[in-house]
Each structure stands twice: as structure tokens, then as C-alpha cells.
Amino acid sequence: MTQQTQAQIEQSTIRKISWRLVPFVALMFFINFLDRTAISFAGPNGMTQDLGLSAAQFGLASGIFFIGYILLEVPSNLALHRFGARKWLARIMVSWGIVSLLFAWVSSVEGLYTLRLLLGIAEAGFFPGAILYLSLWVPARHRSKILSLFYLAQPLTVVFGAPLAAGMIEQHGLFGMEGWRLMFIGVSVPAILIGVVTLFWLVDAPRDARWLTREEKQWLTRELESEHAAKQNAHPGVRTVLGNGRVWLLCLIYFGFIYGLYALAFFLPTIIGGFQQQFGTTFNVMQKGLITGAPYLVAAVVMFFWSRDASRRGCKTWHIALPALAGGISVPLALYMNSPLSTMLVIAVTASSIFAALPNFWTLPTQFLSGASAAAAIALINTLGNVAGFSAGYITGALHDATQSYTLPMMVVGGFMLLSALLMLLLNRRRAEPLASSLAQEH
Length: 443
Known about the structure:
Layout: H1 3-20, H2 22-42, H3 47-51, H4 55-83, H5 85-101, H6 109-123, H7 126-135, H8 143-151, H9 153-169, H10 179-201, H11 214-232, H12 238-242, H13 245-273, H14 275-279, H15 285-313, H16 318-333, H17 340-361, H18 371-403, H19 407-431, H20 435-442
Helix pairs in contact: 1-11, 2-5, 2-7, 2-8, 2-9, 2-10, 2-13, 4-5, 4-6, 4-18, 5-6, 5-7, 5-10, 7-18, 8-15, 8-17, 9-10, 9-15, 13-15, 13-17, 13-18, 13-19, 15-17, 16-17, 16-19, 18-19
């Protein structure tokens, strides 16, 4: 095989994966993020009033999702590694769709807490499983590009999901139901349907992909096996990885990003709803949905080009640390703007910072881990991120109730993102250290 022919096979293989697998897994992620954040649209549009929720109760309901998610995160990802992504991801989608559907009939604060906890249990393992699945389909040099395409689904969930949710909420009275209840039905049914389709669309390994040619399968299998073999010398067991300092640094870095992500996701619609009192402006439900989505549209564009640069240069420390720094500064700055437009522009910077960093961040674990150890490490990192998701919802709501302002809660968000930037610089000093060496020092 000539070098030119091999380059052509590589290009065609990655292109097919980009078109065949990534959009579908991204669609799954779109539905996933919409389902878990649907409460943020329901809250200020009738649910808070109908169920008599305080800001702290709403924050607890938003965050309690992550308790169930955390408890089953690592076991779920190890199960995916054992049983295969196709069946396991399909199971996760169908189960969370059924639980999400039940929100349409919730009638009490206690019932809301229970369903949010069950939703977290049902969804446990989806996101790290999707990250691991895509990472195992492409060589390391292509992962930044592939993961950035996948990650586009998250900001686009808000760009398209917020107006979509608003449109369903505006159907208030249909079938005798409140608009926010109809919205839960509308976002839940697709999860069940796509979960069934997953069984027929995804394949577990390149050798099972009928849409790859024999030459493409051989090239991809050879590349992935070569990378796996190179890591075998430093391929520790799951227990050893879970005690490794480098992995825990990644956990803490991710904590800061996810704290910021969910503080925005859960409370941005509520903050926009407060513009009327703060600035004397009035927006209807659809206008609020469009305004909520606007910063995330900017974030999607920034993320695409930032990740493209990281893919071209190779992911550098500053591809992750610089966005964390920008986000940490912009979050509290938004509180001192004197108009809705200037406030949303600064929030767009915050959203762009978070999403510019995340896909590049996820290229780090698989740089030095593979197999079950990679599955465990990715799940552990995401577990700590989900601790941040719980903390962001509850702490933001509790601090708002205590101070009657979002100033202190958003200062906390900025502080965590600045901490992520500092820890990323610390991690850069340790990345040059071989994993086997670091394990020897730590154990």
C-alpha cells in the first residue's frame, strides 16, 4: 500500500465515521441534554408556581438528578465496556425517556425530587459512554475533531431546544394540561424512539461496520490496535487508575467547567425572566426561549473553530486553560452590565469559554489510558463533574435565597472556573511525566 493510498484510506475512513456515527450519537446527546435541563424551562413557566417551589427547592430538584447519576456512573461505563455500546446506550435512552415522561404528571415537591433522582439513575453512564465509544473509533490524532463535532449537540440543544420547549409550553391547555407538562411529554417521546433505533444504527466495533470497506476496516483496526499496544506498558488496572493523581486533577478541572455549565443551564432562563424587574423589559415565552438560546449559538460557532485549531496544532494546554480563564472573568462581569443586550453578550463569552474547552479536555484521558482503565477514568471524571452539576443547582439557588441576588452565586461560578485554569497549568507539568512513573511514585 503506497503512502498516498494509505492517506486516502485514512481520509475516507474518518469522513465516514464523521457522517455515520457522530451525527447520530450527537442526536442522542441533544435529546439527553434537553431532557435533563427541561426543568430549567418548566420552572419559570408555571412549574415553580404550580408546585410552590422556592429558589432553593428548584435548585435542589435540578441538582438531585446528579445523585442517582453519580452512584451508577462508573458501574454503568464498565458495563458498557463489557456488553457493548449499542445495547447499553439503547437501554439507557429508553429508560430515561420513560422516567422523563412521568414528569408530565408530577404533583408535589416530593414527587419532583423522586423523579429527578430516578432520571439521574436512568441516564447514568450515557455521556461518558458516548465519549468512550467515539474515542474508541478513531486514532488519537483525530479525536479532538470528532469530539468537537459530537459536543456541538450540547450548545445547539439550547439554541434549538429553548425555542422548541417554549413552543410546547405555549400549547397550554391542550388536552387540559399545563404547558410545562406538555413540554415534558414532547421532550421524552423522542428519547424512547431514538433508543430503539440505536439498536439498529450503532455498531460496537469497526469489524462490524458494513459501511466501511475491507481496506478501511483493516487500516482502522491496525491503527487502534497499535495505539492500544503502545499503552499496554503503562496500562494499569482499574483500581490503580482510580487512585492516580493525574486522573484526579482531571476530575477537579472538569468540576469547574461543569459547575459553570449547569449554573447557566438551570438558572439562565430564570435570570432572563428577571430582566423585567431589573431593566423594565418584558418578553413573552417564545422571546425568552430565543434569548436563552442566543449565547449558545455563539458558543457553538466558537467551539467549532477553537477545536478545529486544536486539531490542526495538536491540543495544547492553552486550548483548555485560556477558555477557563475567560469564563472565570466573564461570569461575574455579566452582573455589572446595564442592559439586557450587554448582559447577554458577556454571558455569550462565558458559554463560549465553557464549550471551547470541553471537547479538547476530553482528549486528555485517552492520551495515556485505554480499555477498562480508560472507561473507569472517564466515568470517574464525569462523576465528579456531576457532583458539580448537583452543587451548581443547589448552591446557586440557596445563595440566591440567602442574598436575594445572583451576584454571590455567579462569583462562585467564576471562582471555580479560575481554579480549573490554574489546575490545568499544574496538570501540564505532570503530563510530561510517564504514567508508569507517576503510578510508581504514588503507590
